[in-house]
Amino acid sequence: MKKMTSSQIRQMWLDFYRSKGHKVEPSASLVPHNDPTLLWTNAGVTPLKKYFDGSMVPENPRITNAQKCIRTNDIENVGDSYHHTFFEMLGNFSIGDYFKKEAIAYAYELLFTKEWFDFDKEKIYITYYPEDLEAKAEWMKQGISEEHLIPLAGNFWEIGEGPCGPDTEMFFDRGEKYNPMGKELIANDIDNDRFIEIGNIVFSQFSSKEGVDRKDYKELPSKNIDTGWGLERLCLVMQGADTNYETDLFLPIIHKTEEICGKKYKDERAFRVIADHVRTITFAVADGATLSNEGRGYVLRRLLRRASKYAKTLGIDKPFMAELVDVVISIMDPYYPYLREKAEIIKKIITAEEEKFLLTLASGEKRFASIAKKSKDIISASDAFTLYDTYGFPLELTIEYASEANLKVDEEGFKTYLAQQKQRARDARKDEGSMSGQNEDFLHFKLESKFSGYHCTNQKSKVIAVFGNGVVLDETPFYAFSGGQLCDKGKLDNEEVIDVVKMPNGQHLHILKENPFHVGDLVFAVVDLENRNLTRKNHSAAHLLQAALQKVLGNHVHQQGSLVCQNYCRFDFNNYSNLTDEQILEVEHIVNEYIQNAHQVNTLVLPIEEAKKLGAMALFGEKYGSTVRVVDMGISKEFCAGTHVDNTKEVEKFAITSLESIGSGIFRILAVTSNDAMKMLKESTSNLKSSIDATIHKAMDLLEEAKKDNLDVSYDYAFIEPTAFGYQYILNLRGEQFKAQTALKNLEKTIASKKSQGVLASLNRFDSMIENNQLFTTVDIVDTNLLKDLAVALRNNKGLDVVFLASVNQDKITFVCASKTVDAGMLVKETSKLCQGGGGGKKDLAQAGGKDVSKLKEAMALAKELCK
Q1: Which terminal residue of the chain, N or C, has fewer Cβ atoms less than 10 Å from its own Cβ?
Q2: In the predicted model, what is the mean pLDDT of residues 500-521?
Q3: Between the CA of residue 298 and those of 259, 289, 294, 498, 556, what are the distances in Å?
Q4: What is the model's pLDDT at position 631?
């Protein structure tokens, strides 16, 4: 067996499968695009699901990759020999091409020949599904002895209905040093440190169906191969390390941590957890994820806090992880060079989060102190789990603190709580790797259909296929929905085209309201020009918008999704914080500058590597073929297959209508274009105008009421239509809304003040109602604030012990009490109960409400009785 670095192992894997005709797929983003079912890319097959489910046909049915992945379902096991939250999965895949015989032959050649990994056959044990005798025979044909082949009933990959099949797994025997038991450890499926699983091959050959016995599953017409080999485990074996953490993927991080804390690494979990988590956070943030309280942001925040708390057990009580980021990047740089350009922003984000957490950690320590104070001899399992789950204390930290306080911890009970939480997580886990849903008819339709829509919007074409209400033409000017651009509208002869979708092999399927056509018919395809032209403007504007966002916010900004149609441009992007109004205005201004500067828009079709050399930007995480179309606007170069203007001046005008947060660190801008931009913007802000109108109407109603009461008041606001363009118009309109609402509040205060003055001027009218220095009466005042002012004024000005007032407004009663001698809160609470209500307040002033007006007399009598 060769002794190799992690970079050499990864490269040899890719080189081997490239030599077998596989296309090397770059590692996709950890943040899955166009797959809302996943928090993270969690397996090598994840970015290839579109090929396995038949929604797209790959350029090459043989694919290999080294895919970065995140899984957090085993987070509590991180720090043992080989569990991680971030890892790399080496894979080779066949989509309907080679199958079992070739897959096993390739694995054997890679493992055992001197040119490649050169493993000792005596060290490798292989499991197979007991009924898959074909796999067993192929391994034996290659040269594996029967003694090293182990049937295992669990070797069958199946999740729900759909493609499934047997699998075979490869284990490396590290010898009796790690366990005296032999291969029965594998046969009994026992987790151990002796036999290390280094890879598996799934033979996807059956279609599972609920209620059908596995032996009766039907064979798939198109069989696939899906393999996964763990880079970290290969490094463990090929570098002769005791655990994954003593390999070159982790040791430099651990050594740097030693330097920071001043302690030596002796297999401590704390060093390992820190090394694992800082890798995960570094890559996730580089791929556009942010730390927050929801979704994947919450996962990252939890990992950072776990690492920070483990650091505390090593004596590190300051932000330190930014120092490890450079080490992570230096290790991973050979295959992930993009990390270097993001290093500073990654460190900035991590440090800010650490500083924030160190402040909140103090509250956790206070919580521990209060728990320790009430605990006699032992910290209960419930309290230990609360510290863990709510405050993020690892059990080890709680044990350490407890020891210092001469207390023990119910560790077994804590483990029970933890096991229950894990089970809940397992129960909630979704099928994240399913490869079902093939549409065989679409998948096997391979007749060529050309797209002519870049240069043509109407033409004669021939029908070459019919699928229900769908028609495929030999050549079409209709753009199919893809890349965030909605499809073209129009007609085939007189039949309306209501949708155009892209089929797995790239043809455009035209969906018609009614389909009278047959194969061989000639039709006249006509694209709706107005719809096409407005869509082109919005699509080109989306490219200009991304360029402007990167100019204002930084190159970390990437498109996270988009939708362009005739009415608007919707653009989703990542950023570490919300944009200020000034930044939004600056972005809008820059886009309009790009438009006015009349940049020529050129398109090129190039080999992907040449396109990258030009500096063309790809959609982060998207997969592309060997050739790509580049849309070059001078200030923006992007991979894009959509339709665009010929010159940026054709966009005419650009106005941002809204910006909102749609998730953790993901924001959405809506914008409109063309000379009608302001008209469309004003239509989109109709709710703001309606709000202003409603405020003015309410003010007018108040003025009318004030006039009846002979109150001299005025509403000091008149609406002025803003004249600014774009987003500034919205800001000005919001300003008008604020002015209108402020003037209304001032009017309400003025009316209340004048009414209060009138009430206070007539306090003497209550003199005849006072008995025993107490006043109980009903008044005709609806305003609660006025009612309280009156009660306080009577109490203070007349020197009364208790003032208890009631006011009836339609079917509701309000009680207010101002008191010097009796608990006012108690009085209103007890009396309101009689009227099916409630309330309370301070001892000197309180209010309550009731629903049963018929009980008013009883309530007033009760109040008097309670005051005796």
Answers
A1: C
A2: 93
A3: 29, 10, 5, 41, 20
A4: 95
